[in-house]
Amino acid sequence: MYPITAPLRKARNWWFHLCTGRPVDDQSDEEHYRQRILVMTSGFWLLTVVLFALVIPILLAITPEGRIAANVLFVATIFGVLVSMLLLRLRGDRIKALNVMLLILTGAFAAACFVFGGTSAPTYPLLIMAPAMAGIVGNVALSVSWGALVIAFWICILQAERNGFQFTQIIQAEHHSMAMLMAYTALAIAVISIIIYAEMNKALRNSLQDTNSELEHLSSHDQLTRLPNRRFYDERIALALRRAADQNSMTGLLFMDLNAFKQINDTYGHGAGDKLLIAVAQRVQNALRETDLVARLGGDEFVAVLEDVKSAEEVTRLAHKLSQAIEQPLYVRQQVLNFTCSIGVAIYPIDGRQQHELEEKTDKAMYLAKKRGLPVALASLEATNTPMPARAPTNRI
Predict the structure, then answer these.
(1) Rounded Cα gap, residues 153 and 147, in angstroms
(2) N-term to C-term CA, the chain
(3) Residues 6+ apart with CB under 8 A from 226
(4) What backbone phi and psi angles, to 5 degrees, belong to 28?
(5) CA–CA separation, 227 vs 285, rounded Å?
(6) For 333, phi and psi rounded to 5 degrees?
(7) Does residue 362 carry a pLDDT above 90?
């Protein structure tokens, strides 16, 4: 299979690069996807016309007038595709390129109806390609517009025949069935090609979108704990503070730092340290609400953003709950690992309204708790030298 697919893929990439000036895998957005459809379906249509231009003289006895009409149609098709692709490459305007190509091709097919026998012309049913391509490559409104135009032309040709208008008949009667068969075959090949390629590109686009989503998740999340990282936190805290300002609500900011984490790494090894970080991340998530943001800033530092809290007491209560959940013993290599955590708390708008101001006060409160051997310290009580909670200090590593 590879010897067959590889040259086809190479030809496809070459054609797309020729028509757009960009690699086929340059982007994965909607515009790039639809440009791929326009380029490739126009290529399929061009190949179909070339193929039938070579086959028709072999299968059908065409009059000199018919040969001239077929050649004009052949040249018009090539001209329409090339002008459209040149416009796409130079201007990057997919809709304009599509409309130019459909205008030239539809005009040529419509004119051919007058030469090949009106409703009996092989090009008469091929006009359906215009709204089909407009819908797949363009949009619904464009498809409706081209569909209305084609239907109007069909009605005009049909009405003209009913009123006795005599269209030129250059296809001999005995070859008419073969000509119509070839026309419907060309139509079927074009439609099937569009559908197949559209589905292939849809699958490719979904794959690329999944890959981009995964890369975006990796860039915004910590690989060890699977928590959001500092980049994600910076975006979310700014949004949370704006919402708090708009809704006149309170938001709690908690900085958490494991005490003597380096000592734990040195004593038990980095594997145990990683296991501890993963456990702490899970415990913090379980202890807080689903709407709260928990992120790892780096090393053994974690942060939590508590939106829409009702009071400072609620933030304090959640901080104590968090401290108790984090400091549960952890079993590592059949050993009990006891550890502690220091939590600094700041509250919007009590302790400040700006992100940097809240972070600075939260950080100071955390180091005050660490210095005094207490699990939690509130930034609002730092000035009074009375950190929370009021329980007595314990021996904390």
Answers:
(1) 10
(2) 64
(3) 281
(4) -135, 20
(5) 9
(6) 50, 50
(7) yes
State pLDDT tens for residues 9-32.
787 778 778 888 777 666 556 677
pLDDT in tens, 274-327: 999 999 999 999 999 888 999 999 899 999 999 999 998 999 999 999 999 999
Strands 376-378 and 293-298: unpaired
Domains and CATH numbers, the chain: 2-218 (no CATH), 230-381 (3.30.70.270)
Greatest distance between any 2 Cα atoms in the chain: 107
Letter for the amino acid at 73? L
d(CA 311, CA 68): 86
Decide if 339 contacts 257 (C-beta within 8 A): no
Which conformational region is residue 79 in: left (phi greater than 0), alpha (psi within -120 to 50 degrees), or beta? alpha
Looking only at the bridges linking them, the beta strands covering 376-378 and 341-348 are parallel
16: part of which helix (H) or strand (E)? helix 2-20
Other C-beta atoms closer than 10 Å to the C-beta of 131 total 22
The answer to whether 28 and 212 have CB atoms below 8 angstroms apart is yes
Structure tokens at 108: 């040529």
Q: How far apart are CA 326 and CA 324, in angstroms?
A: 6
What CA–CA distance (Å, rounded) separates 304 from 233? 9
Say if CB 342 and CB 369 are below 8 A apart: yes
Angle between helix 30-59 and helix 64-91 axes, rounded to 10 deg: 160
- For residue 379, which of 333, 355, 344 has the smallest C-alpha distance? 344
Distance CA 283, CA 227 (A): 12
Q: How distant, in Å, are the alpha carbons of 39, 136, 188 from that of 196?
A: 14, 12, 12
Q: What is the mean pLDDT of the chain?
A: 80
pTM of the model: 0.50
Peptide bond into 389 cis (omega under 30): yes
Q: Are 389 and 374 in contact (CB under 8 A)?
A: yes
Q: Which amino acid is at 228?
A: P
**Residue type for position 292:** D
Partnered with residue 306 across adjacent β-strands are: 252
